[in-house]
Amino acid sequence: MNIPKYDKKDLLSIPEGKTFDRKSAKYDLNKLANILIAFANADGGTVALGINNKRYEGVNLLAPQKQNDILQIGSQRIVPTIKIEITRKPVVNIQGLTDEVWLLTVQPADDKIYANKKDEVYLRIGDETHRTTYEERKNLEFDKGIRAFESQIVNEAILDDLDEDTVAEYKKLYGFEGDNLWDLLFPKGLAKRIRDKNDHIIYRLTVAGVLLLSKYPTAFIPGARIRFIRYEGREAKTGADMNIVKQIRIEGPLTKMLQQASESLEAQLRTFSSLDTKSGKFIDVPEYPKGAWLEGIVNAVTHRGYNYTGDDIRILMFDDRLEIHSPGGLPAVVTTENIRHTHYSRNPYIARALTDSGWVREFGEGVDRIYIDMNKYFLDDPVYRVDSNSVNLILKNNIIVRSFRKNDDLESKIGADWQKLNFIEKAAVGLAYEHGSVRTRELSAAVDNYSMSSVRNGLKHLTTIGILERVASAPTSPNQYYRLIK
Question: Schlafen AlbA-2 domain location, by residue (predicted)?
Answer without folding.
Answer: 16-131
